[in-house]
Amino acid sequence: MTNIEIENRINILMVDDSATNLLALESVLRAPDRNLIRASSGEEALRYLLDNEVAVVLLDVYMPGIDGLQTAELIRGREKSRDIPIIFLTANTTGQNHLSRGYSLGAVDYIVKPIDPAILRSKVAVFVELSKKTREVRRQAQLLEEKNRELENANLERLRKLIDLGHEMAAEHDPPQLLRRFCESARRLIDAEESTIAIFDRDAHSPRHFFRTNSAGQTVSSGEVPAIIQQALRRVSTELRPVRLDESDELLLVESSEADNLHSFLGAAIVCGSIPRGWFYLLNKKDANEFTEADERLAQNLAAQVAIAYENATLYAEAQTHATELSMEIAVRKQAEEERSRLLGREQAARAEAEAANRNKDEFLATLSHELRTPLTAILGWGHLLRSNKLNENEVGQAIDTIERNAKSQSQLIDDLLDVSRIITGKLQIDRAVVDLANVIEAAHDAMRPAAAAKEIRFELSIEPAKSAVVGDQNRLQQVFWNLFSNAVKFSPRGGEVRVAASVENGTVRVSVADDGIGINEEFLPFIFDRFRQADGSTTREHGGLGLGLAIVRHLMDLHQGSVEVHSEGKNRGSTFTISLPVIPAEVSAQGTTAEAVLLQKTEMQPFGSVEVLQGLRVLVVDDEPDARDLLSTILKRYGSDVRCSESAAEAIEAFADWEPDILVSDIGMPNEDGYSLIKKVRQLDSSRAQKIPAVALTAYATDEDRIRALDAGFQTHVAKPIEPEIFVTSIASVLKSPTGDPNNSSSPE
């Protein structure tokens, strides 16, 4: 027996724990074309199947260790042996459970012992023949694979070129450039003299792209297709398969000048999906009379390849365009989203600020109500006691002092509110002049001296007048220091000390106001200069006030190009406020004092030594409030004036007709007709006396805008309520003393 015959034997695996049974099986199944392999256990059978193939496994069911059913389950569990047929051998004819489980494990048959040799041979023979046919199929497949490999090797060079072309087209994303490269490469790949490619628009009538490469390798993007070629291309477009023609075809046998140089034609349709999009063709195979079938197949592959590449390039170009548009849209949306986010952030911040402002407003209004009602309690209470006429002389004096002090306190609150209103609207202005800061500080100290004495608080002033000249508004600077001194006195304990010191460094004068009072908590320091903010806004606080003074101080310092700072070591450790202002050099101060100080002095009200000018003066007082009319009338009559009162503008006009007053004192805010309407009508009367009569505006509208409006309307001066009798009388006298009725003369307090 030859080695080939031995190698072609079919393996049959017999598994039984009985050597006698194995011998019997071997005697029945022995044949020249078979290898009978014995296995005495399931483990031995499994080891053999790891490295060998068998046509069939004869498996005894009952064996020690791993029985036949378990062995079959393990065989089926392996990838390599999963499909091997298994025939179970058993002496148990009643074990239906074994039969069911055996078939579920893939058994092809059961043979009951004792075994019938003929049945066993016939069943095993089937699987032996099946194994032989399987081997033959494998052998044929191997031979076919070898033949294919030979064919591939034969066309390897052409395939390499085709792959290179595919890579080039896959890397090219510009559709026109892709078609140009294809036209040049297809001519070289199929070895033709000339190649042409065309891609049509969606209407399939007009070419979108057209390229032709001639025999010299030159490529053009325009040209005419000969009529004879057009006929061939119609077949290509209709049949949608390659068309190969040579000189034996009727189409090329036509006698024409176009056909003289045409020996062979190969064309293919370019189909994208199922839609024809174009064609390409090649003319005249080099060194041959016609194109081959291999050329035809290659042309078909090239047509499919260029269709895919063109579609991809077109999609890429469209995607790039879309990506650019999308990128721009995303950028616009991102910008809009960022803007929306910024707006949302600003809106949230504004809302939080508004809520905080609203809380501060509510707290401020509660504080304002308290601060206004507190002095009113004293004023109304002492007023009631005065009306009872049951007070002695000392108590009457105490009542008057208390009423006056509380009225001034309310007036100061109103002034602070007006200043804050001017700050908020940006209308708070200052009159600049050369100011001796030492005099300003001394004046503020004098104004604070009674309050300090009442609490036995000592003031230590350390100021150098010669080095403290600044440019600013004297009244406003005095207001700054009065506020700082007032706070120092308010928050210092009885018997405390306030230290005021000034020094000049690098052209800046720094004035510090230090006290040994309750100090400022570190948490509140950043808000100390905010409007309507107080360290203690509760109903149990020890010190009154609206929390406006320091906000006004900071704004006034800003207007003077200066600054204000605060420092405190904490609770009950005092605080120090420091004012910084640019100083004027000594020589400039000396030169500027004469002119600018005179200007400052002109703006201040100078009291008159006597008021004889009011003796016998006829004064027309116009006010809709009876109490105000009575007060003004009483004051003027005490100075010898003849007073007549009117409660409306219309009544005042009638008074001019039958009584010629020497001066008009009118309220601004009145029902029906206000003071502006009255002064306008007075100036329009026929009487020359009425047209030139001095007029004083007396009103609770006390802002700078109100003063300017009153002067522009025709009043000579503007006196703000609440009035002080001396200032009121002096204002009238100053108007009468002025020969021109200077409209810039005003006693409005700042």
Describe what you observe in this structure.
The chain has 750 residues and is an alpha/beta fold. Helices cover 51% and strands 18% of the residues. It is built from 22 helices and 23 strands. The strands form five sheets. It has a six-stranded antiparallel sheet, sandwiched between helices. A five-stranded parallel sheet has the order 2-1-3-4-5, with helices on both faces. The chain has a five-stranded mixed sheet with strand order 13-15-16-18-17, covered by helices on one side. A hairpin with a 2-residue loop joins strand 10 (264-272) and strand 11. Helix 3 (42-51) runs parallel beside helix 4 (68-77), helix 7 runs parallel beside helix 11 (293-388) and helix 11 packs antiparallel against helix 12 (393-425). The chain is elongated and about 160 Å long. The chain starts with a helix and ends in a 13-residue tail after the last helix.
Low-confidence stretches: 537-544, 589-610, 740-750
> Tell me about the biggest sheet?
6 strands, antiparallel
- Adjacency order of strands in the biggest sheet: 8-7-6-11-10-9
Average pLDDT metric = 81
General shape:
elongated
Please work out how many helical segments DSSP would assign: 22
Taken as a percent bin, the fraction of beta residues is 15-25%
Number of strands: 23
First and last CA, distance? 136 Å
How would you classify the helix and strand content by structural class? alpha/beta
